[in-house]
Fold this sequence. Notes:
heterodimer; A: alpha+beta; 32% helix; B: mainly alpha
Amino acid sequence: MMKYVGKASARLLALGVVLFLISSCSQNEDDKHVDPTSLHVSLGASPQTLDPHLFSGVPAMHVISALSERLVTLNLDTFEVEPALAEHWEVSEDGLRYEFNLRKDAKWSNGDPVTAQDIVNSFQRAMHPNIGWHFATDFYFIVGAEAFHSGDETDPNTIGVHATDKHTVVFLLERPSPLFLKQLSASNFAPLHKASIEKIGSFFDPATNWTQGGKYVSNGPFMLSSWEINKLIVLTKNPHYRDAASVKLERVLVYPLENELADERAFRSGQVQLVLGGRIPSEKVAGYRKERPNNIVTVNNYATYFYLLNVEHPPLDDVRVRQALAHAIDRHAIVTHITKAGEEVATTLNPPATPNYQQIKKLDYDPELARQLLADAGYPGGEGFPSIPIIYNTAENHRKVALAIQQMWKDNLGIGVSLENQEWKVFLSTRKSHQYAIARAGSISDLGDPLDFLESYKTGHGMNNTGWSNLDYDALVAEAASTIDDEARLRLLTEAENVLLDEMPLIPIYYYAQTFLIADEVKGVKFNALSRFRFQDIYIDTKQDQ
Amino acid sequence: MLSFIFRRTLAAIPVLFLVILITFILVRLAPGGPFDEERNVPPQVLENLNKRYHLDDPIHVQFFSYVGNLLQGDFGPSYKYPNRTVTEIIASGAPVTIELGFYALLFAIIIGSAAGVFASLKPNSWRDYTPMSIAMIGICVPSFVMGPLLILCFGIWINWLPVSGWGQNPMDKLLPAITLGSTYAAYVARLTRGGMLEVLSQDYIRTARAKGLPEWRVISLHALRGGLTPVIAFLGPAAAGLLSGSFVVESIFQIPGIGRFFLQAAFNRDYTMILGTTIFFAFLIIIFNMLTDIIMVWINPKLRQESFGK
């Protein structure tokens, strides 16, 4: 009898397991059925905050850009400024006064109208010393911004940003700033809804936890329904958005996937339909291109991979040595055999993507010239050249590039360099304290303007860890930074970049390319050099699924 | 028994304090700080940030104010997740890690003890060698190999199970639990086999068989109870290991558990988060070791006498 009961229960158990498996498998099948109103997307690792003044990193930038509408937006082909929240604007002739007229139909996700005062409040918060916005000092050209940010002045209304009526906001500048309009299109300038934040805590306290699902009042095409860190972000269509009729998706589900392997696996198994992190394991790229060419997209970015040279570190204090090193790198071999994602050889610091920016001087691969320069510097055939290290942050790609360059310098110049990898924060601190000879670096611009890159190598700038200082260069960049006329400005920048390439405190290696994965049914994604995406234009075409 | 628990709790306090002190000093010795970015933060901004988080105070002041807050249950603000506190983040991640650890332990016990019993019934035959060889492989294959392998087989080739996520699909907990539990299942299998072999040669088992009891009753009612004793001793360290070792599995399967925060915090130099997660894990390990000791004493009369001096 006992035996019989045992067998029967074992059978029942087995049956139960089978039924469970079947039911869960069929559920899995249901999931794969494409929902025409939802997009499943990976943007990279989980954002740490969705606060426009505190976030860092690309994934948060994308989410904030989907949640908000800034005064202006950038045309993704021409990088020109176009109207968004502001219907039109006027800039005074001297470039010191910007007047924006807001759309009267713009609303927050709670139905409140978006007013000029909202823009004023948001900028006051950005400049508040408590907030600790990393880019605050870049906006010291706005009247009163520096005094308020440094704490000399405590009244935020002394900042030159005013609402002259409900729909008009005026910015007053101390000096003209050619990139100002473009900067206003960035996620940092997403307007904030002060009243709803104050329900949770102080508007000027960065610890106020208002960036939660259901509490985040936004004015863009989407709103934040839920956000579980490291798990899932759900954006739903904002019914109060002024142009809600043109937003096709009802929901965007953002999966925070930490690395490129997870991204690719999630795409291959059908869990996500779009991978916008820009990273696919390089060994997978060729396979996708061959077998699923419609699902892989490579875009050349406004971003450059280069080596910083510490000009205080002998023998790199000799410009001829720096030039010799630069001319002895076969960049073509690096992009074709190592990085392989479609990167382009970098012959300048700025990628050739800006319309009207003509960079004349170019960096060529010329081993003969390199040897000559090195000999002139007193190291014929590399004789007597001390061994110096290349440092890079620990990553397979950086290691491979460094190995190749090490070999090229050995073959072409007869010099030996050592390689040293460092953990990211250690690496940053080494670079910052100039305790290196040669260090890997990368720059990306979401404005697509040469000024963005060139400003970084002014004397004492936070990116210029080379010890290099050139007063002519500083003067040229400073002049360009306050020249409104675009043609004259770009001419000045060309001149500045020529100085930089002559002096060579950095060696451009390649312009980055990003690789994205996109399922057949996902349409309306406009890939672009600035890696900005407009989620309101994306839609799902279910016919493609058949 | 109560005084034994009380003594063990008292002994845990200096251990925890030392963990806090050493971690506090070590994280500050590591190069780089929480606010370091690719572009150097302007000095004015850095000064404000340091002031806000009291990083400009002398280090002993920082330490004692941290411990003071800790005693009130406040782990402080996270430097990297500026809108959230460490307490909030631990509260969101801990249940996930504990749930994952629980499933993994369940898997380890069920599969491990079944395999161990099976192997012990016909020692030194193929029925012994096969599960024990598999167990040996299970011990040797690390989770960062096992995880991707399982994903490849079940997630991509036959596409039955989700490759990442947690709680979005009823099946997405299966692969992580197996990955995390497999090493422990292998240990459990070997321990069970050893325990069973010892018990099966005892006189009372022979008596049970002589009484004509069916074999399955001899095994499940008489032998298993004694045979599993080594496994019970192993459960405490296993539970602690499962929780604190889950970060690899959490990373592979993109699970929002506390292990991932632990790892990211170290890379980010998020001082308060490193401390918070370390204290949390240290606390769990101490608790589990204490529980094991208590259970061991409780089931083993010989130890009970020694511990309580009866």
